[in-house]
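Entry:
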Amino acid sequence: QLFNGIAFKDLPYVILKLHRNNTKLIAKYADGRGIWHNAPSYHGFLNAKKRTNVAGQVAGLNMGQKLRGLGIRTIRVKINGFNSSRVSALKGLIQAGIEIVCVTDVTIVHFDWPQRARK
């Protein structure tokens, strides 16, 4: 299937790495070459504020503007992890005028993870 004249497997993708205290956005071409990376700390959000909704939206908006400047209008999104900026980073990408075709959750879940050591 074609999206803006590009096959699905050839669409670039953005990985949202959502950690406990941070949010990172990494854009890559379909073959794995990097395009650009972004994080709320580049826009003045420090310490625990990097994981907030506003920080995620600002980082997503700036990532979207950079992608549009490079002529990329349609992307896939892979989400890895949990924090409060999970949805707001996507909203920032959409506000920048990027069309999101597919949202994939690639969070690793260990169902057989042992209990942590006692202290």
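The chain is about 25% helix and 30% strand.
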